[in-house]
Design goal:
The chain is α+β, with helices and mostly antiparallel strands. Helices cover 25% and strands 22% of the residues. The protein has an eight-stranded antiparallel β-sheet with strand order 1-2-3-4-8-7-6-5. A hairpin with a 2-residue loop joins strand 2 and strand 3. The longest helix has 13 residues.
Length: 196
Amino acid sequence: MTPHSLAFYMDVVTTGTVLGVGPADSPERVAEVLGPDFAENTFDDRTMCRGYGFVEFHCDRASTEHPWSGHHFTLYVHRLAYRNSHWNWNQDRNWNRPDVHGVLRARYGRFTPRLRFEKLQRLLARRGVPLLEVPGLPTASPYYRDFWQPDSRVAITVIGTYGEHETPDNLRVGDVYSIHAPLTAEELEWRRAQAG
């Protein structure tokens, strides 16, 4: 893993933002920072997603009369392991392309196909940024483990154990699957209640 791409992940986990753009920021604010090169998918009148390579910002609104507001972002780190395959859902719009957006590449350099959780955790600990293991989603256990950074409210999902048809073949146990923000205190309490 190059120091530059590790710096990107460390910045996201530490700040809860992507280049200073937070999960609650508007689509216009995201485009100001990451640029106009994105794929957009509107699921219904109230939910929308903009994809910047392996980074996606999700928005919602109360109705079509209201503006879009940011809801969360996800770094689909596992997609980078598929860069050399024909994995795109929609070739014309490059939706869900397993690639690093140009703005991120210009700032951080080369990104490798896999991110090892132990290395990221160790480097964050040196910065005084703890990661706490938290209950995962009930449908994902034991294949995935979740870790949470309380100050930034960032969650990291890691491959916990291999499962045929459950985990990607291109990843190993201990690889980061995704990084998501925010994981709110309310969702965390719900997960803890589900875990018993």
